[in-house]
Amino acid sequence: MPYRTIIEPFKIHSVQHIDMPAAEDREAALQRAGYNLFGLHADEVIIDLLTDSGTGSMSAAQWGAMMIGDESYAGSRSYERLRGVVEGLTGMPEVIPTHQGRASERILFSIVAQPGMVVPNNTHFDTTRANVEFQGAEARDLVIAEGRDPSADHPFKGNMDIGALRETISEVGKDRIPLVMVTVTNNSGGGQPVSLENLREVRAVCDEYDIPFYLDACRFAENAWFIKTREDGYSEHSPRQIAQEMFALADGITFSAKKDGLANIGGLLVMRDAEVAAQCRNLLILTEGFPTYGGLAGRDLEAIAVGLDEVLEEGYLQYRIRSTEYLAEKCRDAGVPIVWPAGGHAVYLDAKELLPQIPQSEYPAQSLAVELYRDGGVRGVEIGSVMFGTVHEDGTEDPAQMELVRLAIPRRTYTQSHVDYVAEVVLSVAARASSLTGYRIVEQASWLRHFTARFAPIAG
Known about the structure:
Oligomer: single chain
CATH topology of the largest domain: Aspartate Aminotransferase, domain 2
Number of domains: 2
CATH architecture of the largest domain: 3-Layer(aba) Sandwich
Number of strands: 16
């Protein structure tokens, strides 16, 4: 059978209007927002690729399930339904709902992390890093060398460096490591997958030193699809079987249901250790809500329960990964430097390579992100030294290893023509990349500064 276009495995049931702000309106919006794309109003954006977190479209089945949401404060039927789905998927009995993934991280690290401790990860995402460091611990990234090279062609660039993990344990001592975490897929490293072989190796090291092993499982289904299509011996396995094998290797997970839960809000903290879970629930009650709703409405719990089944459908995953790859190929084939192979949820543009005239101290990825919006109303996000640079007390900074702009594709939201438009904008900006100049920060917060910082352009 000849190759055919992989079409969206759904019909459009309802639509939402997209505003088309003119170039002069976009320029005014940039100035008002201090050149921070987080400060833009949604109706000032044409194609919004800021994040894939909570921005996707829910299915008719999810909307239908929300109508039977049980809003009981304690003992909600909707919680019991979600708990059954999660336990069946992960094999873990302690299921704690939260309002989103960062709440799960905050609760977990508030319980297990202390000053002077070290938390190894392949690559911490921004909120994960902040929640580790807020407790006075060190968030240490141990991704393999290929994962730090945007152009390196490796099927599992999200893998953890096992040698570096052993060296870290030897250096700091196992008692200073509350847990080892692996992010699947590796968001900050370009949405790159982690192999089952690597997860088994991490598990073996954790067993050797008696250290708990957790997954940041926000995009577990996308990671399972990459394993199915790239790792030897798994082509005949279903995504659900692969996901269950992944979870069987872990002691617990943090999870944002706004990603592979296919929901607009929600998170989970799931584990095997009943004693740690009891401590987490005590903190949950203090800040999130009763353990059977965790800051969510019953209707949200129902939507997540359905989403966790839908996200593992092969037709959906094939379309999802191909959509991202399609945009990546258009950029790469036109000579635009990107992280390759394509990640699961986003295309990452390599601003350091595209804009060599802008030093990292002037935030080339921020410059590129601003220009994509200025050119065509496309909102992405900087994943570089604004987000991950290290700021010292004297005001100096150590830059991030990579300067990327992430174009995160919301699930089941945009069509191929939208993606074609994004590619046209990227190519338009790339054609005049040498004319772009940098930015300086004029206002910033102490934590997660990229959300609220204000910038000023540096004259060329």
